[in-house]
Structures are given as C-alpha cells and as structure tokens.
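To fix ideas, we close by showing one paired sequence and structure record:
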Amino acid sequence: MCEPATIMLGLAAAGAATTAYSAVQQGKAAEAEGNRVAAVAENQAQQSIAIGNYQKAQAEADADTARGEAVLQAEQIRAASKRQRSAAIAATAGSGTSVSDGTAELINFEIMQGGEKDALTTILSGNTRARQIIAQGQGASISADNAAANSRAYGTSAQISGQNAKKAGYTSAATSALKFGSQAYGGWSSTAANPMSRYTTGNLGSGD
C-alpha cells in the first residue's frame, strides 16, 4: 500500500513534469511562429525591392523614350521651318522681289530662328520630362527599399521574440524542476529525520 507522502510526491512530480513540458512546447511554438513571420517578412521585402527595381528601370526606359520623342519632334520642327523658308523664298521670287533683298533676308532669318527656337525648346522640355520620370523612378526605388527595411526589421523582431520565448520556456522548465527537486528533498529529509512521523499515534500498539 502506497504511503500518503509517496502519493503526494508522485502527483507533485507529474505536475512538475507537465508544467515543464508545457513551458518547453510553448517556447518552441513561439520560436516557430517567429521564424514563420520572419520568412514572410523577408519574402515581402524581396517583393518590395523587385517592384522598386522594376519601377526604376521602367522610369529610365520612359525617360529615354521622352528624350527620343523630343529629338524627333525637334527634327520635324526644323524640317517644317525649312519648308516654310523655301515657301517664303518662292513667294518672294514670285512677287518679283530679289531674295537677297533685306526684307526677304529678314523674313528668312526670322523663320529659321523661330524654327530653331521651337526645336531647342522641344528638346529641353523632353530632357526636363525625362529627369522628372527618372526622379519618380528613384523615389519609387527608395520607397521600396524603405518598405523592405521595415519589413525585415519587423521579421527580425518577431524572430528574436520567438527565440526569447523559447529560452524563457526552457528557463521556466528548469525552474519548475529545481523547485520540485527542492520540495521533494525537503519532504524526504523531514521524513528521514523522523521516520515515525509518517505514522499516527493510533497506529502504534499499546503493548497490552
């Protein structure tokens, strides 16, 4: 027949083991969750960077297109200016006025100057537009990098929290074990010091 003290000690041991196991399992679960969150955060960070790089590259391509279109428009303006000058020269000659006349030369000069001015303005506008597009692409890339950094920081924080929770679980388990060991030793030493304490006075024979 088991003694009450032995039964109580066994129950305490079972309770301590359950508490320690639960603490360890909770710690492991917290670590696993932290690793999962960190992995998701890293994936999001990589996606942000990829999108930022794509937007930056697209912006550079759009900027090249803007510059190219501006140059093409400038050439069209210059060609139109030449046609206008040719038409003005033909009209001057048709009217009987010498094309070397001061007024005719002035008209030709103004047409040429106006056309070149429009052409250069178009190129300048295209270059300005290109710089704006590139700046937008760089801004998108910087925003993506910041988002990636924030995502990774969040993931790292979650991972560290999980690792700390795991350590806390093992610490809690060890503390529970030590506490039980101390209590068990105290009970055993008390019984060992006074072996008759486990018996009640009524259990002893009177000798009659």
